[in-house]
Amino acid sequence: MLRTLMVVSRGVNQGGLDYYHKLLDALLEKNITPFVTLFHWDLPQTLQDEYEGFLDRQIIQNFKDYADLCFKEFGGKVKHWITINQLYTVPTRGYAIGTDAPGRCSPMVDTKHRCYGGNSSTEAYIVAHNQLLAHATSYIYHVFNSAKKGKIGPVMITRWFLPYDESDPASIEAAERMNQFFHGWYIYFKYYQQCINTYCMYV
């Protein structure tokens, strides 16, 4: 992640910007094409402390401002952007089972007493939704407002689920349900609401 300051309205770390300009220049001099990830699980601690990060909708505007700054600063050197890495993993591991940062989950899930709070049945969905909105606002700016051409998108971990018993209709339906839930939630934005409404009741 470009470690400037995600809350752009509070000021920008010019030293951080200078560092990444030099880094990008060095890569380009070696004919190395930079692929830049804006967020890979390293949210500034201040945003987690102030409003629980992606659990609050304030993150959407803060992320957009941060992404806009990066596009303006580095868009002449970077043509491949990743908005958020591992869309599925952050809400599930960070807010449902609490094994990864920020370590939130329900008490009944927290068998090792490592979560400092949370609600596993709701927070993962809220975080996922806010991640998608943060990505979307950044994407819209990049596509419609940036004069510097490039490619942009999130990164999704992928899995594929197979029926336990290919002769059992219930097993086949369960595998399809899991595939639709896992991929449709994030990848098929067109079917996002349909996916959530149809499949959330089962998981």
Automatic annotation (TrEMBL):
Enzyme nomenclature, EC number: 3.2.1.147
Any one cellular-component term (Gene Ontology): vacuole
Subcellular locations according to the entry: Vacuole
Gene Ontology MF: a single term: thioglucosidase activity
Main localisation: other
A Pfam family of this chain: Glyco_hydro_1
GO biological process: carbohydrate metabolic process; glucosinolate catabolic process
Tree of life domain: Eukaryota
Record keywords, A-Z: Vacuole
Substrates-to-products reaction catalysed: a thioglucoside + H2O = a sugar + a thiol
Function comment: Degradation of glucosinolates (glucose residue linked by a thioglucoside bound to an amino acid derivative) to glucose, sulfate and any of the products: thiocyanates, isothiocyanates, nitriles, epithionitriles or oxazolidine-2-thiones.
Family membership: Belongs to the glycosyl hydrolase 1 family.
Protein name per Swiss-Prot or TrEMBL: thioglucosidase
Organism: Brassica napus (Rape)
